[in-house]
Design goal:
Nucleotidyltransferase, domain 5; 26% strand; 6 helices; 45% helix; single chain; six-stranded mixed beta sheet; alpha/beta
Amino acid sequence: MTERWVGIVVSGDKVISVDAEVPDDGPIILQADQTFHMQDGEKSAALNHLFHQLSDYLRENKISRVVVKASAVAKGGGLSHLHSAELRGVVMAAASDSCQVSVIQKAQVSKRFGDRKADEYISDGAFWDENVEGVNLRIGSREAALMLLSERRLS
């Protein structure tokens, strides 16, 4: 049965989001590839705005599952790593309001998806031609789409 899923990667003050119809097998059908940005100004208000923006999008589009890229241990990640973690928490809270949420590490994707590391799939244009249909998938959004494909394997 085909469901609507969203893959999310948080980086700095932006949320890269890939919305796709995910059938049991075959290519996923992209509905949207977009980036949500935090507003300038007071941080708590900006996080609140992004929370509602994402929550509304997920509910209005009847998204049943969100797959979020987990935090990774960063060598010298510092303050920017913490800001991304805060935003990732807001994303998970917004998603859990209306759908199932999975949080996976990039290393898990590499181990459970196939024979190659995640970065090898991400850079392989032919792989994306075979596995994604619908609207154009930006190169910077491939990681979010790969998380959807990987999560489908476990379902």
